[in-house]
TrEMBL record:
Compartmental location: Nucleus
Name this polypeptide is given: JmjC domain-containing protein
PROSITE patterns assigned to the protein according to its UniProt record, in alphabetical order: JMJC
SUPFAM superfamilies per UniProt: Clavaminate synthase-like
Amino acid sequence: MSGSTTAPSGVSNLRLPTPTLDAESQSLLQSISAQGGYAYARMAALAVAGDQSAAEAARDMAWEQLHSGPWHSVLPVWRDAYSMACLHVAKFHFAAGEFVEALGALDMGLIMGGMLLRKDLHDSVVFVSSESRKKSLEGSGDSNGEKLVPEVPVDLNEVLKILPCRSLTCRRVEKRSSLSMEGFLRDYFQRDTPVVITNCMAHWPARTKWNNLDYLNAVAGNRTVPVEVGKNYLCTDWKQELVTFSKFLERIRTKKTSSAEPTYLAQHPLFDQINELRDDICIPDYCFVGGGELQSLNAWFGPAGTVTPLHHDPHHNILAQVVGKKYVRLYPSSLQDELYPYSETMLCNSSQVDLDNIDKTEFPKAMELEFMDCILEEGEMLYIPPKWWHYVRSLTMSFSVSFWWSNETDSSSS
């Protein structure tokens, strides 16, 4: 690729404003040089002078540093260096009218980069997305409004054939319509008990927008997201990939991945990355019970058959089912020993028991345990108390949001 970029006619005046980068560039380059990044600093200076190949070389150098060891050992300055290089690369693509490539570079900066230049990255995404939509609208026809998940009832007899043994035979999770804050606090939060809350999401724009293929492609199609490929994270063939959202949608719609290797956008902070989707949801008032604070807001989006294996989480959790249906099974934290958690630190919150195929010889205690379960319908929320073990299977294509929050005691001790 040549060092200079010639913009197409009519877009040569396109420039990305990056005020933080402009103000912090010199100081950041000094910090990078102090860590031995002299070659990076030279390439970054050439990039500012108009050399696109130097910008890409600087990005490659920073990328190598990000992968030089365990993620926690990577110096923060190299994460900021990667953000800087992504902004430089994006500027060249944007000036050339290459909006998809510009968004790809910016997303990589958001996903892998540091915090120093995050506002520039976010603002640049908004800027590029706006120009990209203008261009796409010029040649677009009428939207056909294709739905991702048709309104077809689930056949319970067919569902039971794919669910774990004894599903829907024990205690069902109680369902409460429009549950009051007082009722939630008294009957479930303080008693450490799951509950399904119905009729609580009708006001979310996501309830209609996220089931519309054209809408999702319009607001997120060109964005780069991390996805999981494989049965689940406990399997040896599990891996992660970076793909555009439109490619991900195409995979799960056309089932280009096999049932043994589904593609799943799982536990990703999608709403920090794509503000338009964040605007389509609301933080449930229930998440403020206990006086704590929201810890994370994650997306779970994938085809029917995706499974999150039996595990527990450290925080209060509301799982909001926006599109599609899921089966959820829950075991109280008191049954930890009977569920055989892994001994390795990284997996100590995950059970060795595969509920889809329990090894009776190796895990005899797990066979007859009592549990709670439910089918979580579109428009419902499930409250999962901290440390409750849960297994989740998508019964249809599914788009969910999880809200993790701590109570006041958790916040003060963390």
